[in-house]
Specification:
This protein is mostly helical. The protein is built from seven helices and two strands. The chain has helices at about 10-30, 40-60, 70-75, 85-100, 135-140, 155-180, 230-240; strands at about 190, 205-210. The protein has a two-stranded antiparallel sheet with strand order 1-2.
Length: about 260
């Protein structure tokens, strides 16, 4: 058997490390040059200290610390379990946070369930009936027929409890991003397929946006977009993601262009 060949990511990491070590050594040599003035030496020292701070932080943010590696490894032989959807969503969020912190990936998407979501949530109002989430959302045991809040208040209460459970999972996943110092470096957006179950409406669809995209977005606010088209939100989020290039995007998708100023910092 031959030796395992390094992956592209491993080669890229080694290449970046070699360049980094070369620049650091050149910087050290320059700082020891007797012809360097006091002011210039101070400036280089500040720069050198900043590099050292990054080096100190990297092992903490770019590591497997905080990951449930046993459960993640077990996903290789995973068999569908209707009760584990939120658990798997949380595991994948923790993995994405590490990938971002290590700069292995710049973008990721995670589908939480599907339009015919078979997840069974063991919330108090669903313990006896054990309805799948699609039926709870429809207020009736059907993938096509629709009931109402009045016709099935138990399903309505169960839906509220499911929403609370999902938000706890989302918050726990975002804690992984926060622990790796990504609040000012990235954006995480959570949203729904529909505004709510019985009507399947596409108006007033909720969005949760975590992270300020390099200071481009407001945080800690509830914002009523006032019926703005979805493309204005996407324009704003794409512009936030491209802040390192100084680019603003105002023509993504159909509808009136522009940015959603209500969420801009």
């Amino acid at each position: 058997m031959g030796l395992d060949r390094p992956t592209a990511d491993e080669l890229l990491f080694k290449s970046r490390k070699s360049v980094h070590d070369l620049v650091r050594n050149e910087l050290k040599d320059l700082m020891q040059n007797p012809r360097l003035g006091t002011v210039d030496h101070q400036r280089l020292q500040i720069h050198f200290d900043a590099i050292r701070d990054v080096e100190t932080a990297l092992p903490r943010v770019c590591s497997s610390a905080g990951l449930d590696t046993t459960k993640l490894a077990g996903l290789g032989t995973y068999k569908y379990d209707a009760h584990r959807t939120d658990e798997l969503a949380g595991l994948h969020m923790s993995l994405v946070a590490m990938a971002f912190a290590c700069n292995y990936r710049r973008a990721a998407s995670l589908q939480w369930g599907d339009p015919y979501d078979r997840t069974v949530y063991d919330v108090p109002s669903n313990l006896d009936s054990q309805w799948i989430f699609t039926h709870i959302s429809h207020r009736v045991q059907s993938d096509s027929a629709v009931g109402s809040d009045a016709s099935n208040p138990t399903a309505t209460q169960a839906h509220a409890e499911v929403d609370a459970a999902r938000m706890k999972t989302l918050a726990a996943g975002l804690d992984h991003f926060k622990a790796r110092g990504l609040a000012d470096q990235c954006i995480v957006m959570w949203t729904n397929h529909y505004a709510e179950g019985p009507s399947h409406a596409f108006v007033d669809i909720p969005h949760i946006i975590w992270g300020n995209g390099g200071g481009f977005l407001k945080q800690g606010l509830y914002v009523d977009a006032g019926g703005a088209a979805n493309n204005r939100l996407l324009n704003t989020l794409i512009s936030a993601a491209l802040q390192d290039t100084g680019t603003l995007v105002d023509n993504f998708g159909d509808g009136t262009g522009g940015l959603l100023d209500a969420i801009r910092a």
